[in-house]
Amino acid sequence: MLLFARYRHPLFIGLALAVATLLLLTGSYQAVGARWLVPVFSPLIFAWTQYAVLALQEYLTERRSRLQAVATFGRFLDPRVVDLLVSRGETTDSLSGHSREITVLFSDIRGFTTLSEVNTPETVVDLLNRYFTLQAEAIFGQAGTLDKYIGDAIMAFWGAPAEQPDHALRAVAAALAMSERLEAFRSSAGALGQELEIGIGIHSGPAVVGFIGADNRQDYTAIGDTVNLASRIEGQTKGIARILVSGETRRLCELQAGAAGCPFEFVAHGSYQVKGRVQEVHLFEPRKKP
Description:
Blueprint: H1 2-7, H2 10-33, H3 41-73, H4 79-87, E1 98-110, H5 112-117, H6 121-141, E2 145-150, E3 153-158, H7 167-188, H8 190-194, E4 197-214, E5 217-223, H9 225-235, E6 243-246, H10 247-257, E7 264-272, E8 281-288
Parallel strand pairs: 4-6
Antiparallel strand pairs: 1-3, 1-4, 2-3, 4-5, 6-8, 7-8
């Protein structure tokens, strides 16, 4: 029992108990040869019974922890990424408070206020739910982290919690897939869907990632200037292009593609002054290469 409290590793304790059992049985056998009677069976039966009970308890605790991790990670991650993290024994504590280079994506519906004013709440909610489902599939299709829904907006990022050396490429690929899914959705959603338009902004850089919030309610998220700039870039898309990325995201896409060559081409749209930045930001529209 003391070993479980100190080490909490059933395999280690089982091996130690097996060695102790072998030594005691060997010693008892030798003692019998010397006409000594050493009562070892009752203590061994008690020890192995205790081990079985405590090992079962440890298994149930670990299983409960794994199920909790799956439920927690499953809210914002693709199931394949969830399986990877759980297999590595990751927890909310082990994934918190890290600085990572990531690529952040913000997507927002254009004219949503007008859309909600001229339709019933039930119609608007149904439209949003169907739209968000399609876009979440595009994000998960590139193994992205779906950070949150902010009203009619989506925030997602790549590069955490699982490391992704091609995080910029994945983010851009997801953005293009989101644009394609929007066109299909507009065709199937009738007159209401024709009014939908979105803007997507993407930026890459360092950010702090982890579970952040109150003790009784925490969400896995990213914070920092990289996140803020991605949001500002999304705000610049209106009247320019549906998708805009920063010069840093473009640079990383070309770097991460390596010898295979970047699958995207980037159309320059000039430099813009964004709130909170002294220097102007160079913006590019990504397109699939023909």
